[in-house]
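One-letter codes give the sequence; the fold follows as tokens. Both lines appear below.
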Amino acid sequence: MHRKRKYWIAIILLCLTVGMLAGCNSKKGNSGGKSDGDQVELRMVWWGSQDRHDRTLKVIDQYMEENPNVTISPEFTGWDGYWEKMATQAAGGNLPDIVQMDYKYLSEYVGKGLLADLNPFVENGALDLSDVEDTYINGGKLDDNLYAVNIGANAHAILLDKAMFEKANVPILEPGYTWEDLKDVAQQLSDNLGDGVYGVQPHAGVMGFKHYLREHGKWLYNDEGTGLGYEDDQLLIDFLQITVDMLESGAAAPPDVFKAAGGNVEQLPIINEKTAIVTDFHSNQLIAVEAAAGRPLDLMIQPMLEGGELGHYIKPGQFLSVSAHSKEQEEAAKFISYFTNSIEANEILDAERGVPIATKVREHLKEKASEAGKKMFEYVELAGEYSREIDPPDPRGSTEIETLFENEVADPIYYGEITPEKAAENFRKKASDILAKNK
């Protein structure tokens, strides 16, 4: 009897052990740590137009339908205020699990330890980048760690309304045109389109200046991120003078016509035919702008510097990153993988954020693209012919410098409150102080 008792006790213990192991294994499951019964709650934040919000919400709903154990709470806004909101959440240790990231902010967020390295999730298959070429991946890497996944390649562009050119009897600018050509055409458009309509919405902002610097073989920052990358302030003076000349001649719209739009592309004055050209634009914005305008618009490359270098580059339009604060990093990586590779999801997204990075998705959408989508795909291909390699991500402090440029260079130039010479002098002094903190 004693032996039988021991035998049954051993059997019971064995069954309990097997049951516990089976339970542990079931929790691992195919989802890398969560079974279908384990509820996962994620937060996702992005900026953009209403069109982007609608598309992204549909994809989130579709993902949750396919993954009933996952709930994704969306948070979205326009560009204005987005980074202030992110900074507040970061300071409180409360960044959403999935964050839409921009190339110029990547170094800063990585430097502050706010983003997770995604390489482990690529290695274990949660984030599938097997159909993505390195050229689309490398922009999200720092020191060989992958902190961001490109969700749409784009290129700096000029937006124009060909119908307004035709109405003004002004020829369309062709690739290879110069800054002087742009000024001349803007003047003709303003002269021929009547009162209250202008040739160009000017842009004396940092993005345009970066393009201008690249044409001179320079960049805004030095390699170490400890100072400005150009020594001659005449470069900034000359760049700002282009805008001053167009404002003074009436070729460019005054700030009260275009400043009200803020960062909202759906409120650009070209929508209401107040300008025929927008000089600072990104190719991935075309779909949203055409939807808002209700008529065809087109893209062309930026002006070229006679005898200068190529200024364009193919840029990650936006990234998706995973917060270092997230307790569900692998699950967040899985959603990014879906966002990248799902044909069904990308039919909804329709390349609104830029040209998709997965080869099969890109080829599928190009065949089925709307007219606006086709123009975007074709423009990125064209810009590639006028591009050279992308510069490194902006260093820490770049967000402060961009705000400085907007508030103390671009805006005062628009309103005629400062000369290009004084603006260039002030910018160098204050920007140098900011970047010196990186030494």
About this structure: Residues 40-152+317-357 form a domain with the D-Maltodextrin-Binding Protein; domain 2 fold (CATH 3.40.190.10). The two ends are 80 Å apart (CA to CA).
